[in-house]
TrEMBL record, chain A:
Originating organism: Flagellimonas okinawensis
Protein name: PKD domain-containing protein
Superkingdom of source: Bacteria
CDD domains: PKD (cd00146)
Pfam families on file: PKD_4
The PKD domain, residue ranges: 65-125
Family annotation (SUPFAM superfamilies): PKD domain
Length: 285, 468
């Protein structure tokens, strides 16, 4: 009994003191509680984002913040999220300022803002090169220049000839002389790893037998005709001698690999006289 | 003395070099022969120690924990919410105090140290051998940094032998892009200085293949393609083994470009991971077990590869094990025991092989796009599938197709984690997998923590990765 009374009195005495202390700390709010230490690891907001595989409007966000417990994402399009790592689908293309506010339980905040450019990805653009003097016509180079075979020359070999007889289209065709050992060479810019088809038309005199022309693609450019053989990445022979005057179609598929420059190469085995006309290149889907 | 022992006991290119701890470095490397033993010492670092000591460097013997077990390919058999070091990789609750994380970090820097010792002593090499020594050391150093930068992010860049008190270099994290520049420089030097021939040591092809992977990682696709095509030239002599099993059970075959060699039954030169992947044959109850998701992937895309990739656990038929590096044989599969003690396994660890190069070739042509129809890419892709008995041709290869193909072809070869990262699918794939299985994935788990032991030693100089 006595003990209890003393106890009660004790608290009654202490009560005013306690209240004073409380009021004091509320007003000033700077004196740390006894034994507490300063928070040295403040929240730091940071994030990354990546476009979804199948939908260019959808992004997933990775939260790289440190020392934070609560997150507010603002996607810059009026939508927000409090998830740790949300996924968000934008309604349309555009530039969005996405911000992440990271905070801890002491209410300290950190904000990181990044801009996302939402845009429908373009399909791969395959470059289709223009073949100069493709029909071996005169005056088709820049400024109306050229005889019809000027874009086809290479050092170390005779330039392919021209003819106005036995022509497929226009006024001229390339002429392959018997025994002339003439060649045609032209560099082309291409898209690496794209599949291309080269088409040309040729005809060979019906005699002597055993003649052929060769259409080839060189995987790299060369300085001298002697380097051609080693550079061939695709080739095809045209050996149709059934008619001296009727043209035959010849096609060659090639893929340039990692290279963005190739060259067309044309030669023959110098047995039969021939013509080549209307070379074209296209992309194969 | 040690050297003579080595020559007699080993059939491999390298095994036990002279111990470095007992020899002071100054004045150690005086001749080509001593440098050669320094070279072997680097590979010994990659081999790692086959024991259970927590202070040993287990190097790539523990690599599956920090790579494959963090993917949807494999898991442990323990409780989903276990806090054991091994289980942390499975449920993505990796802690900075994880001993395996520290082991791998320490191991890679130890390998880098061994390479730096050699590079600092190149002056004594003969003119005939200097280029090769330099090439091998730089390959090994780049290999270790490539592992570090992909797993830990920004890491300290130690490019020479440093004193223990040189804490500024040891504890300053350098931006990943600079680490990648350094790796590229080392590998270009290795490509220029090395020839082909070795499979358990660095070679020109190994340096090219590793550099191709580095280029794919940093988005230099054209350069990666050129390197792959260099290795693919028939004159280089690499090709797919016609039987998938022979890739793993006929060591030194034409498909292998770089493998870490192990010798059975020798404590110092054997490996322990093969036994850990079995049911209580190693020291664990069995880790790196095949997930259900992985078995589904094999059902869909595996073809002939499945038989020699996964097998049912005879003791626990509901569970499936890795079948690529079985140390104690399997009569049904026609695999002979490789070691008399499975814990001292001799199965080599393949780091780079030709199928990987072919699929890297596809990835280079894909060049970050969602799909490709290039005939060049399809040819390489089809070559890998044909070997697996999947001969139906495709007209288009999507990124997903490539990831699936790599997943089954290179299953349990510690590639999946890096593949997902490189192709930008890690967060998507692993968060879905984690949700399905009750694991706690967040994107910050994609980088391992810097080991807390290192941070403590640095007295706060080393900064931790976010999320730890």
């Amino acid at each position: 009994m006595l003990y209890k009374k003393i106890f009660v009195n004790h608290w009654a005495n202490l009560m005013p003191l306690f209240l004073v202390a409380m009021v004091y700390s509320c007003e000033e709010n700077i004196l740390p509680l006894e034994g507490s230490i300063e928070d040295l690891t403040l929240p730091e907001a940071n994030f990354d984002f990546s476009e979804s595989n199948n939908d260019y409007l959808t992004y997933s966000f990775s939260n790289l913040s440190s020392s934070a417990t609560d997150f507010i994402w603002d996607f810059g399009d009026g939508n927000t999220s409090t998830e740790n790592e949300p996924e968000h689908t934008f309604s349309q293309e555009g530039d969005f300022e996405v911000s992440l506010t990271a905070s801890d339980k002491l209410g300290v905040e950190s904000v990181q803002t990044k801009s996302i450019s939402v845009k429908e990805p373009e399909g791969p653009v395959i470059f289709i090169p223009e073949i100069l003097e493709a029909g071996f016509e005169a005056g088709t180079l820049e400024g109306g220049a050229g005889d019809g075979n000027d874009a086809w020359a290479i050092a170390g070999a005779n330039n392919i000839g021209l003819s106005t007889s036995v022509v497929r289209t226009g006024d001229q065709a390339a002429r392959i002389y018997m025994g002339a050992e003439s060649v045609a060479y032209q560099e082309l810019t291409v898209t690496p790893n794209a599949d291309y088809r080269i088409t040309l038309y040729y005809t060979l005199a019906s005699a002597p037998a055993g003649g052929h022309i060769r259409l080839a693609v060189l995987g790299n450019t060369i300085e001298d005709a002697s380097e051609a053989e080693d550079a061939i990445i695709a080739s095809v022979l045209g050996d149709d001698q059934t008619s001296t005057f009727d043209y035959t179609k010849l096609t060659l598929l090639f893929n340039p690999g990692a290279s963005d420059t190739v060259a067309i190469w044309l030669d023959s085995n110098n047995i039969a006289e021939g013509r080549v006309d209307d070379i074209m290149i296209e992309h194969v889907e | 003395m040690v050297f003579i022992f080595t020559a007699i006991s080993c059939s491999k290119d390298f095994l036990e070099p002279q111990p470095t701890s007992a020899v002071s470095e100054e004045g150690y490397f005086k001749t080509d022969e001593e440098l050669e033993s320094g070279i072997l010492n680097m590979y010994d670092g990659i081999q790692g120690t086959n024991d259970r000591s927590t202070s040993s460097n287990h190097s790539i013997q523990y690599e599956f924990y920090v790579t494959e077990m963090r993917t949807d390919n494999t898991r442990g058999k323990g409780a989903v919410d276990s806090d054991a070091d091994q289980a942390q990789f499975v449920n993505y609750n990796i802690r900075a105090t994880n001993g395996i994380v520290a082991d791998y970090y320490r191991s890679m820097y130890n390998i880098i140290y061994r390479a730096n010792v050699l590079l600092d002593n190149l002056g004594v090499a003969s003119d005939a051998n200097r280029a090769r020594f330099e090439g091998e050391a730089k390959f090994v150093r780049a290999y270790a940094y490539f592992n570090l930068v992909r797993l830990y992010g920004d890491v300290p860049l130690v490019d020479k032998v440093i004193a223990p008190l040189d804490t500024e270099i040891s504890y300053t994290r350098i931006e990943s892009s600079i680490i990648y520049d350094f790796i590229e420089e080392d590998l270009l030097s290795a490509v220029a200085n090395l020839g082909d021939g070795y499979k358990n040591r660095a070679s020109k092809a190994a340096a090219e293949a590793l550099l191709a992977k580095v280029y794919l990682t940093i988005g230099e696709y054209s350069q990666a393609q050129t390197l792959c095509e260099s290795i693919m030239k028939p004159a280089r002599g690499f090709s797919l083994e016609s039987n998938f099993k022979d890739v793993f059970y006929n060591e030194g075959n034409d498909e292998v470009i770089f493998a870490v060699g192990y010798e059975p039954d020798l404590i110092k030169d054997s490996q322990g991971f093969s036994s850990e992947w079995l049911n209580a044959v190693g020291y664990t109850a069995g880790v790196n077990y095949v997930t259900k998701e992985m078995r589904d992937a094999f059902d869909q895309y595996g073809g002939d590869r499945t038989l020699y990739s996964i097998r049912q656990d005879v003791i626990q038929p509901s569970e499936y094990q890795v079948a690529k590096y079985i140390p104690n044989g399997d009569e049904n599969l026609g695999i002979a025991p490789i070691a008399s003690d499975p814990r001292l396994a001799g199965n080599d660890w393949i780091v780079l092989r030709y199928a990987d190069v072919l699929l890297m070739h596809v990835e280079a042509i894909l060049a970050g796009a969602e799909a490709t129809t290039s005939s060049n890419a399809i040819a390489s892709f089809q070559e890998v599938r044909n070997r697996a008995g999947i001969t139906t041709t495709v007209a288009t290869i999507t990124k997903e197709d490539l990831l699936n193909e790599r997943r089954v072809e290179l299953a349990f070869e510690n590639q999946r984690f890096f593949d997902l990262l490189r192709l930008g699918e890690a967060q998507n794939v692993l968060s879905a997998y984690a949700t399905e299985n009750g694991y706690n994935f967040t994107s910050t788990t994609l980088l391992l923590p810097i080991p807390s032991s290192e941070i403590n030693l640095s007295k706060g100089l080393l900064e931790q990765n976010p999320g730890y």
